[in-house]
């Protein structure tokens, strides 16, 4: 058994290593394009403490019922569908039980004032048909930028939808300048790969980097400059189905699971403004930003 003294030492060590980590990046995070971000949410779902500990630190789990006038079923978000799966985070849309709603999963950041940043996840897409898997910023239906995967697409393992909402023109047609339907040749999204977008004033750059079964590195990048959000937002991951034959299809007849190893969000927000950031960076001796 640990003595009280040993336990105290361990706790002190743990606290001081957290402080060192935080201090190391007191001057922010510099991304591969050279942009500096003041804050980060680094959710490592493969950590020893478990995926749900990483969720609980920075995210909330949705439990609301969303009525779906255009679908054949409603969406019922349930906490149980956000779970430890293998060595990572599982997000599940359950096999449909004909109850009128599909049990689905969603987490969103406690912070809802994220404005610009670089957002990445390492994930495997679900392969059971009839669900949507999303990684996106959101504040309302016209201030939203999405990465979405539709598991009913025959080529779902290399097909991704990048949308700065609204993705439709007023006449209802798809707006090809704000909604990009991208097939990444030779990619395999059922393997862990990095799905990312970089949100800057006037430009969202969506990208992917992963490997396929032949061990080739596959990359792709898509720039969208229309309908780039300008409002402080929250960040969301979800998986759902409403049985809409035009989009999610389904509902799924087996459990559909997205597996996420990490979500790394580097961003600016109004609650940690330039003055607070500069003071923290000065106090840390104006060290170099962390490269991310
Ligand atoms: C969405 O949010 C923006 C920015 O706050 C606001 O201007 C716009 O009216 C909102 N749109 C809707 C549909 O609520
Ligand atoms: C984010 O914050 C950094 C540090 O304050 C600043 O240099 C940068 O211009 C900000 N980025 C955007 C897109 O506002």
UniProtKB/TrEMBL annotation:
It comes from the Eukaryota. Residues 1-22 form the signal peptide. Residues 63-271 form the GH16 domain. GO terms for biological process: carbohydrate metabolic process. Transmembrane segments: none annotated. Keywords: Signal. InterPro entries: Beta-glucanase-like, ConA-like_dom_sf. Pfam families: Glyco_hydro_16. GO terms for molecular function: hydrolase activity, hydrolyzing O-glycosyl compounds. This is Concanavalin A-like lectin/glucanase domain-containing protein.
